[in-house]
User: Which sequence fits this backbone?
């Protein structure tokens, strides 16, 4: 019988790494075991077992040319390293604080980025869940929004083969809730179909998710809301009366919704709209249930994520069954995992929610890495200065037989200990700064145990990388010292190391000046957005939403009542309040004599007091007269719109205003108002037509009240009393105009706050770096300073000599920093149509600030060395 030969490549690998004195024994044992196993089992099993035995032999003691590493020696490395850190407390404290601060900022930014990138990833079917987006073809072109027909989800589920499930979701109107005899005002609920928990994995603490919304009068409360209503008793089976929707039975308790969920809510109710539709308007029922309506958001669960591309065609085929071809709008899918970052430009949101900005996330990652690099550069600089004092120790070690590698390992282990302690201290700092960070950003981040366990491999990798990056240069630089020169008390010439040291200084200055200049520009743009005149009044302007037909139908009576209040100065009604996140109605406008000359515009309807209440300036013509019949066929253009019709010559022209579809109105231009920012400062001012609120396009949506500001709280109470006399739901939803404008810039506010905090910390790290570099210079040049003092140099002369080198390096850094920062700032500002000009004074100002800080640090560090007795520095020369 032929003897089976083992595979060659594992044995070749064994011979490559194994020492010759033990190779024969190990190879013989492995081959013998292979033959024994091949006779008892399959060849494949024996081969795998041989490979495993080769891998098991890959041990330190078996490696060729492996240095003898003994456990006692390793313990000694750590013991000596720890003693060295304790001995030089000043340098250790500076290094420890600088590295831990850099690591704390890096960890905090990583937590923020992880939070942003993890949106909705907790849903097990997240990769197959999509939101249906409807694209309206209006006067401005494509206008995507999340709102779709109420009937769409049922049709998709039952008639489209690629759809596994579908559900409708929309925000619940603000309402009073009565539970356990107590009354609460709630505004963070949603209404959802029974399929909601079949698609989404929101976890229930109590109740059955598959049955919780099957009953038409079911409500599921969040854990915090259930505790607020019923204390620590189980709320299952108890009733909650929502005045806008009716009485519901609690069928479940949700664990509090994760902060990284696109859909945010405190309660969810089943779809029973009878009471709701009666409270809103009798006419709303037909629109709500019609295929032509779009009152809800629709989410679908696809059978296969790859079928996403087929959806648009299948949706169009489906809609052709229920709508005329002219009334069909394109529908497409946007993935649940993409909604947080990619839903910008899509109108609508289920509840209050700040959308993510991926470009800002990338920028913050870069800032976090820069700050960590700065901390590492500080460590290199400070360690180099510190280790100069230990040159004799290196000489003695080498004289006693230590190799350069062993000396390098000693210093690398010291670096490892420093980084390890810094990392632990950085986590403590992160824990304490997170509450303030959360306050600045409005995002609730936590340093949880789960996060620490999941991230442990990455943390270990960070510790090792930072150890190697920060400790490599000091360790291998010092290990090369000549034994003879060191023991003769001769300092190794630093000429060969000047390039790296000066390079570190330049990079430090470059980072500091770029971040500092960037901070000024970001803050300047944010201040500009908050202070720029929008072309209309935003102060003391109260916006009351019209949420019921009774208020809308009795608007004029309500207005008369409001004007009687002493703190109310002006009142007007408007179809949609001007603000950055609420759009006016899209219409096409053209002169009646040129029907093909259509211009897309935004339409706002107001009453005759609207121009005065909003404090818009009439540039030409006149405002509305107050005579409804006359005002309803009159319009006012903004300057941009008027410029399209010859400026002031536009007054008196008859224009045709047409909404998408057949709804149109012929009206006479009676006036021109100044351009005003009806949308965000990121976008340019477009043409606007202002008509009367009694128009065929859109009904009243808001009541605008200008207050005197003398007694705002009392005024609000009186306004609410008047409002609630006409709104049987007794819920007044209101907001001040300046808060409404601020909401548009929530992302910018978060970005600025994070950037300000990061900039301050980076500046602190830079100061620590300057201390380290100055210390290096003082120690390296102590003999030079002593000789200069003996030859008569004064204090200022020595300070000037010490500062001169730093000023030169600062100037080199500024040559790179100014164009770099200018380019980065310009790229960032491109996202704003209205933006600040980058002032050339910022950069000289930054240079002066950094130079002053440098001089102060050098003065503080050098003072002791300059004032010391020069004899002590040269007594052995």
Assistant:
């Amino acid at each position: 019988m032929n003897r089976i030969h083992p595979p060659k490549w594992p044995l070749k690998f064994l011979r490559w790494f194994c020492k010759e004195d033990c190779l024969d024994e190990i190879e013989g044992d492995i081959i013998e075991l292979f033959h024994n196993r091949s006779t008892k089992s399959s060849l494949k099993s024996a081969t795998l077992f041989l490979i495993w035995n080769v891998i098991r032999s890959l041990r330190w003691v078996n490696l060729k040319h492996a240095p003898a590493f003994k456990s006692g020696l390793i313990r000694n490395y750590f013991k000596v390293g720890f003693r060295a850190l304790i001995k030089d407390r000043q340098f250790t404290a500076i290094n420890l604080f600088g590295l831990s601060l850099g690591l704390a900022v890096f960890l905090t930014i990583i937590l923020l980025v992880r939070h942003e990138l993890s949106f909705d990833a907790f849903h097990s079917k997240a990769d197959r869940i999509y939101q249906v987006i409807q694209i309206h073809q209006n006067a401005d072109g494509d206008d995507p929004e999340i709102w779709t027909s109420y009937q769409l989800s049922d049709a998709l589920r039952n008639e489209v083969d690629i759809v596994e499930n579908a559900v409708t979701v929309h925000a619940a109107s603000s309402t009073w809730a009565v539970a356990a005899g107590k009354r609460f005002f709630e505004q963070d609920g949603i209404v959802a179909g029974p399929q909601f928990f079949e698609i989404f994995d929101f976890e229930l603490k109590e109740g059955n998710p598959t049955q919780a919304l099957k009953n038409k009068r079911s409500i599921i409360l969040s854990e915090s809301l259930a505790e607020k209503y019923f204390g620590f008793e189980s709320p299952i089976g108890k009733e909650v009366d929502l005045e806008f929707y009716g009485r519901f039975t609690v069928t479940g308790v949700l664990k509090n919704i994760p902060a990284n969920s696109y859909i945010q809510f405190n309660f969810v109710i089943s779809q029973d709209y009878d009471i709701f539709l009666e409270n809103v308007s009798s006419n709303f029922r037909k629109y709500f249930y019609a295929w032509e309506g779009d009152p809800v958001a629709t989410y679908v669960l696809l059978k296969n994520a790859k079928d996403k591309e087929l959806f648009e065609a299948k949706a169009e085929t489906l809609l052709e069954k229920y709508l005329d071809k002219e009334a069909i709008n394109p529908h497409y899918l946007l993935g649940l995992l993409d909604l947080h970052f990619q839903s910008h430009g899509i109108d609508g949101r289920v509840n209050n929610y700040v959308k993510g900005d991926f470009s800002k996330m990338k920028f913050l990652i870069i800032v976090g890495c820069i700050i960590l690099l700065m901390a590492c550069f500080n460590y290199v600089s400070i360690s180099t200065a510190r280790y100069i004092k230990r040159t004799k120790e290196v000489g003695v070690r080498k004289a006693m037989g230590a190799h350069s590698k062993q000396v390098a390992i000693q210093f690398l282990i010291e670096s490892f200990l420093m980084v390890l302690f810094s990392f632990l201290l950085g986590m403590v700092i992160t824990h304490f700064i997170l509450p303030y960070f959360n306050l600045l950003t409005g995002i609730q981040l936590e340093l949880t145990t789960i996060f620490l366990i999941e991230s442990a491999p990455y943390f270990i990798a960070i510790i090792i990388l930072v150890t190697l990056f920060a400790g490599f240069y000091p360790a291998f630089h010092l290990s090369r010292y000549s034994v003879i020169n060191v023991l003769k008390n001769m300092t190794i010439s630093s000429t060969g190391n000047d390039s790296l040291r000066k390079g570190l200084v330049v990079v430090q200055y470059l980072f500091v000046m770029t971040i500092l200049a960037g901070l000024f520009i970001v803050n300047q743009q944010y201040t500009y957005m908050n202070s720029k005149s929008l072309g209309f009044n935003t102060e003391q302007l109260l916006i009351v939403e019209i949420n019921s037909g009774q208020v809308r139908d009795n608007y004029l009576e309500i207005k008369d009542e409001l004007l009687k209040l002493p703190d109310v100065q002006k009142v007007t009604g408007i179809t949609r309040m001007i603000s950055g996140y609420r759009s006016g109605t899209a219409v096409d406008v053209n002169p009646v004599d040129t029907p093909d000359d259509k211009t897309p515009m935004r339409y706002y309807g107001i009453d005759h007091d609207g121009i005065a209440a909003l404090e818009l300036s009439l540039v030409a013509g006149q405002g509305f007269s107050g005579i409804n019949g006359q005002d309803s066929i009159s319009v006012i253009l903004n300057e941009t719109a008027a410029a399209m019709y010859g400026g002031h010559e536009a007054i008196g022209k008859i224009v045709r205003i047409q909404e998408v579809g057949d709804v149109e109105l012929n009206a006479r231009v009676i006036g021109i108002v100044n351009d005003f920012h009806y949308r965000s400062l990121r976008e340019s001012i477009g043409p606007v037509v202002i008509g009367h609120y009694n128009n065929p396009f859109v009904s009243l949506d808001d009541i605008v009240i200008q207050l005197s500001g003398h007694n705002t709280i009392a005024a609000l109470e009186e306004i609410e009393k008047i409002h609630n006399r006409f709104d049987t739901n007794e819920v007044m939803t209101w907001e001040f105009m300046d808060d409404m404008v601020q909401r548009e810039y929530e992302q910018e506010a978060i970005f600025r706050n994070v950037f300000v905090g990061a900039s301050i910390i980076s500046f602190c790290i830079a100061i620590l770096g300057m201390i380290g570099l100055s210390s290096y210079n003082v120690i390296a040049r102590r003999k030079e300073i002593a000789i200069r003092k003996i030859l008569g140099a004064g204090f200022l002369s020595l300070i000037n000599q010490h500062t001169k080198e730093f000023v030169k390096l600062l100037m080199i850094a500024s040559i790179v920093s100014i164009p770099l920062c200018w380019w980065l700032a310009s790229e960032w500002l491109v996202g704003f149509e209205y933006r600040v000009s980058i002032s050339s004074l910022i950069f000289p100002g930054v240079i002066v600030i950094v130079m002053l800080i440098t001089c102060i640090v050098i003065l503080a560090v050098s003072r002791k060395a300059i004032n010391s007795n020069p004899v002590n520095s040269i007594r052995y020369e």
The longest helix spans residues 404-441.
